[in-house]
Structure formats: structure tokens, C-alpha cells
């Protein structure tokens, strides 16, 4: 069977997009609401890129503890919310860049991984994770130009083959998935050609150069929604997207590096839009069930009278928050969590839940009422 071409089956897949700490916190709000609705425990696969992989990585590491406590909200708060919020109050990117620039024995990506390992994920390895659900952390292989996937049963891409039962740390998988170019990228991983198994269509399998030294970057370069590994796999697909629409500017920068970054933004925005349109078309054609919610979505479009209200100016500001891995304030954190929670709630109750579920689904309050979003 070709790599990644498993047949569709009953099940629920969740995709978490990229977007730095903005995405990490927005998706935390998504998981908060999904857990209240009883859907986190029902997930069969969580596919993530970039900032979404930070959230997914901690969920993966804490899954068995969360399961042992029956996914109770107090456990979710202790095991997922508090550690992620503490981590998002740290400065990660700038110190890592400093270490990588001034310490000849350490790269920027190694400094980032140290932060993930020491302050969030520990020394847990992919082999330690549960399955199900399967956690898939998506990076991009600079050498092959396609998605490189890290998961418990395998790591690899469809052009070079795969490594069965990889021993990589979760912290490495998250680092590769969130290695935003050019400053936090690349992540260089050394492997042995003998570790790889040939898969159908692996046209580069016989070239050892693609096995000895992997040069990886942010998974969002290839698939900013993290959608590919769940889209054609399950009959129910949920997508939480913290990527903001491309901003329109009258003052276009013409320096070479500004042009390069703008070109990357345009390419990423277009690729995300194409995937989103294809997914929504599938929903409308009833090819699959599920829902998409994005950080720039207007919550009024769901036409739910009991949706949590959000002032348009607040929503627009949240969609434009920086995507860096640096300290997010108490207000920024709580508002992003609230917004992910509110949009997930509206999308689930509008498009996924059906009576009698929907009758009990209306949220009673914001996760952080002191940072409610209904006032401009």
C-alpha cells in the first residue's frame, strides 16, 4: 500500500494548524471545548503542524494520565491548560537564536528543543505515546519537498520510505514541526539508511543521501492546516485553524528579505485557502462530516442565538496577534483560549452535534470570564 494511502474508515480526525504561540493557545481553547463535549476522548487521530504541535505534543504526553482521570475538566486543567499556559509565558525564540548564534556547539533548533524538553515535554519518546489516538507531528523535508511525519508507528515521507517504531523524542518531533524558517530552521536529524523500509512510490529510497541527513523545517511550509493526514483517512474531520488571512498592505517593502517573507506569506495563504475550499466542498457534498473553524471566522455566521458573543474588533485583533514563540501576557493568553473555545463550540453545535447532544451543548460561561470578548 502506498505511504499515507490508508483507506477511509469510521473515526474522528482533528487537525491543528500552525501559527506560533497564537496557535498553541487558540487550539488549547479548541481542546477545552471538545473535552467538555466529550469529544477529546473519542479522537482517533490528531494531526498537527507548528504551533499546533506544541499543544498536541503536551496532550500526547499527558494522554494516559488524562485518560486515567476520565478526561475530567479538573484533570484537563492540571495536566494540559496550566503547563501550556506556563510555557507560553516563556521567551523561547530570541534566547534560542542567541544560543545558536554564539555557542558553536549548539544550533538554534537544538536550543529550542532543549526548551521543549526541559519545560514541557520531558524525555518522552514517540514509542511511549498512546495509539490510539495516533498523534502525527508534521514537518517538511527540505530535501524531498514533501511532508515528513513523526508518529508512534513510523516516521518518514512518501519519497524516501519510513522508519518503523522510531525512537525520536517527542520534543524533537515538535521542534521540527515548529521550526519556522528562516530563523528557527532547519532541524538536522541524522539517521541510517538501514533504518528505512521501502514503501510503494518511494522513488528516492535507493539514494542513501536522503536517509543519512534529514534537513527539516516547519510543517506549515507544506500543509499549514495539518490536514493531509486526516482528510482522506476518517469520515469525520475537524479542523482548528489559527492562521490569519493574508494582510493587505499599501506600503509594500521591496528589500530582498522582506520580499522573500511576503512571498512565503502569499504562498502559505494560497495553499491554506485551497485546502480549506476543498474540505468545505467535501462537507457540502456530504463526502464526510465535520467542521472547520478559523481564528478569523465571524462567529455570527454560525447563526446560533446562544453562541458566545464576540465583538468584531476583538476578533480581528486576535487574528493579527504575532506568531512568535515569545512571552504572551495573561490577557493575550486568556483571550486566545476564549476565542478558540467559542468558535469550536459554535462550529460543533452548528455542523456536527445533533439532538439530543445539541440541547445540552450550549456553554454556560467563557473559560476566563474576566476576559470575555463581547466588549469592544
For the sheet with most strands, the description reads: 11 strands, mixed
Strand content: 15-25%
Task: Categorize the overall geometry.
Answer: globular
The number of helical runs is 11
Mean pLDDT over the residues? 91
Order of helices and strands: EHEHHHHEEEEHEEHEHEHEHH
- Count the strands? 11
Which structural class matches the secondary elements? alpha/beta
Gap between N and C termini:
53 Å
Radius of gyration, rounded? Answer: 20 Å
Helix-residue proportion? 25-40%
Low-confidence stretches: none
Task: Provide structural commentary.
The chain has helices at residues 20-36, 51-68, 73-87, 93-102, 108-121, 170-177, 209-212, 228-231, 256-284, 312-319, 330-351, and strands at 9-16, 45-49, 134-141, 146-150, 154-157, 161-164, 187-190, 196-197, 213-218, 234-241, 289-294. With 376 residues, the chain is an alpha/beta fold. Strands 1, 2, 3, 4, 5, 6, 7, 8, 9, 10 and 11 form an eleven-stranded mixed β-sheet that branches. It is globular and about 60 Å long.
Secondary-structure blueprint:
Layout: E1 9-16, H1 20-36, E2 45-49, H2 51-68, H3 73-87, H4 93-102, H5 108-121, E3 134-141, E4 146-150, E5 154-157, E6 161-164, H6 170-177, E7 187-190, E8 196-197, H7 209-212, E9 213-218, H8 228-231, E10 234-241, H9 256-284, E11 289-294, H10 312-319, H11 330-351
Parallel strand pairs: 1-2, 1-10, 2-3, 10-11
Antiparallel strand pairs: 3-4, 3-9, 4-5, 5-6, 6-8, 7-9
Helix pairs in contact: 1-2, 1-3, 1-11, 2-3, 2-6, 4-5, 5-6
Amino acid at each position: 500500500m502506498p505511504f499515507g494511502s490508508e483507506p477511509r474508515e469510521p473515526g474522528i480526525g482533528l487537525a491543528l494548524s500552525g501559527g506560533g504561540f497564537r496557535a498553541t493557545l487558540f487550539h488549547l481553547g479548541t481542546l477545552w471545548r471538545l473535552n467538555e463535549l466529550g469529544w477529546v476522548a473519542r479522537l482517533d487521530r490528531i494531526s498537527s503542524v507548528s504551533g499546533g504541535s506544541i499543544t498536541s505534543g503536551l496532550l500526547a504526553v499527558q494522554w494516559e494520565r488524562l485518560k486515567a482521570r476520565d478526561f475530567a475538566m479538573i484533570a484537563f486543567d492540571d495536566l494540559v491548560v496550566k503547563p501550556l499556559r506556563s510555557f507560553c509565558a516563556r521567551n523561547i525564540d530570541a534566547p534560542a537564536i542567541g544560543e545558536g548564534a554564539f555557542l558553536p556547539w549548539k544550533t538554534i533548533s537544538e536550543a529550542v528543543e532543549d526548551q521543549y524538553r526541559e519545560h514541557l515535554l520531558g524525555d518522552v519518546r514517540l514509542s511511549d505515546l498512546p495509539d490510539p489516538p495516533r498523534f502525527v507531528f508534521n514537518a517538511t523535508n527540505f530535501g524531498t519537498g514533501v511532508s515528513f511525519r513523526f508518529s508512534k508507528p513510523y516516521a518518514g515521507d512518501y519519497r524516501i520510505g519510513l522508519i518503523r517504531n522510531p525512537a525520536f523524542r517527542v520534543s524533537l518531533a515538535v521542534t521540527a514541526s515548529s521550526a519556522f524558517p528562516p530563523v528557527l530552521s532547519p532541524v538536522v536529524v541524522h539517521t541510517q539508511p538501514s533504518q528505512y523500509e521501502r514503501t510503494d512510490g518511494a522513488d528516492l529510497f535507493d539514494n542513501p543521501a536522503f536517509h543519512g541527513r534529514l534537513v527539516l523545517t516547519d510543517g506549515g511550509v507544506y500543509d499549514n492546516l495539518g490536514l493531509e493526514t486526516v482528510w482522506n483517512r476518517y469520515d469525520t474531520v475537524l479542523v482548528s485553524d489559527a492562521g490569519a488571512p493574508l494582510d493587505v498592505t499599501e506600503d509594500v517593502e521591496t528589500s530582498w528579505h522582506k520580499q522573500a517573507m511576503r512571498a512565503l506569506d502569499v504562498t502559505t495563504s494560497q495553499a491554506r485557502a485551497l485546502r480549506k475550499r476543498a474540505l468545505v466542498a467535501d462537507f457540502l457534498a456530504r463526502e464526510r462530516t465535520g467542521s472547520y473553524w478559523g481564528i478569523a471566522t465571524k462567529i455570527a455566521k454560525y447563526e446560533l442565538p446562544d453562541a458566545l458573543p464576540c465583538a468584531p474588533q476583538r476578533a480581528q485583533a486576535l487574528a493579527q496577534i504575532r506568531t512568535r514563540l515569545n512571552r504572551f501576557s495573561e490577557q493575550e493568553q486568556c483571550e486566545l483560549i476564549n476565542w478558540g473555545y467559542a468558535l469550536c463550540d459554535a462550529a460543533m453545535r452548528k455542523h456536527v452535534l445533533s439532538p439530543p447532544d445539541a440541547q445540552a451543548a450550549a456553554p454556560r460561561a467563557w473559560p476566563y470570564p474576566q476576559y470575555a470578548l463581547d466588549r469592544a
